[in-house]
Amino acid sequence: MSVATAALARTPFTGNATTGELTHWRAVATEVAQSLAVDALERDRKNEQPHAEAQLLRSSGLLDLLVPAEFGGAGGHFETAFEAIRILANADGSIAQLLAYHYFNQTGIAFYAPAKQQGAWWERTVAHGWLWGDSVNPVDPTLLLTVEADGYRLNGAKRFSTGSGVGEVIIVNALVQGGENDGKVLAFVLPTDREGLELVDDWDYLGQRLSASNSVRYSNVRVDAAEILGEVTEEPVSTLLIPGLQLAFANFYLGIAEGALARGKQLLLGRKNAWFLSTAPTYSRDVIFQRTLGELKARTAAVAALVEKLGRAYDLLIAKAGDVTAEERAELAVAIAEAKIVSTETGVEVANRIFEVTGTSSTSNDVGLDLYWRNVRTHSLHDPVDYKKIEVGQYFLHGEAQPISLYT
């Protein structure tokens, strides 16, 4: 029952997205976003588990975008997935988060499982239409796996388990006690209806209300040996999962900023008069408001250029699989940390300052402009951006990377 720790010989991801691939999935994501936009505010206020939204993602094909074509998926690239996340965030940051976490939970197959075992996992996720949640929050006490015949028993609890409320399966990390894997952290997959696994519907926060990020409790949950993906190690290619997830964050912060700008523009153009001290005929013709929007738009465009570049770079490095070096991994992780910094600050600033051009009337509860700020403000606290700044500064000054963790 020992878990192999050999380097991954390959990943199923190769090359970069074609123009055709990007065009197709942009159209799919845009259609989904338009559907989400219709009642985003109403759904946010209800604060219910997003089962209908999960089904929308499933029926659109977005859940299987990254599954290799040889196993029944779309055979897409991370660059395309990042863009889909960004487009959805224009309309609904919660569902963009749900999709982002799904992608990196699902592709844990490639990051953790031995190559010869990956095909069966990919085929199962397609056949059953799985949405993948997670239960790996590292700031909670460690989950414990206790050895028993042909498997384990899992005990403990995790908060902030994104997607667990609506996912068919969740990926879990836990520390093994006893046996030949004693002291190892294993990644494994559990169905959310497993006996002893309790989904606690306690996600009631300022924003990202529909990300299904509730708590999960485990009471002597059976974990079969066949449900183990592999060991969580510091092998360079397997540890690229976390920078990839951080880049997904940058994309949905960017998408929220773009959504706030679009909604702000709509509201500003709808204002028919002007401030009484202005000589402009309308608010939208007032250079003060034009200047503010110009500044916010330019900053958002700069973030977009950076994350698009990094999406392509991520695909290229993932394709090297076991040949990825620690130095290459560190360089890309720091570049993604830079994107995390500017996307966080730009997203929060845009979602906040958009009110400067839309006026008091835009704070009405039925307008819902606050949804963008509440969403980006909530998730941008996931890990302190100041530590990302330190990570970048340390690498720039000394060429020293931060220790590998579930945040770096």
Automatic annotation (TrEMBL):
PANTHER family: ACYL-COA DEHYDROGENASE (PTHR43884), ISOVALERYL-COA DEHYDROGENASE, MITOCHONDRIAL-RELATED (PTHR43884:SF12). GO terms for molecular function: monooxygenase activity. Keywords: Monooxygenase, Oxidoreductase. Transmembrane segments: none annotated. It comes from Glutamicibacter ardleyensis. Pfam families: Acyl-CoA_dh_2, Acyl-CoA_dh_N. It comes from the Bacteria. The keyword Oxidoreductase applies. Residues 248-383 form the Acyl-CoA dehydrogenase C-terminal domain. Residues 27-125 form the Acyl-CoA dehydrogenase/oxidase N-terminal domain. This is Monooxygenase. InterPro entries: Acyl-CoA_DH_C, Acyl-CoA_Oxase/DH_mid-dom_sf, AcylCo_DH-like_C, AcylCoA_DH/ox_N, AcylCoA_DH/ox_N_sf, AcylCoA_DH/oxidase_NM_dom_sf.
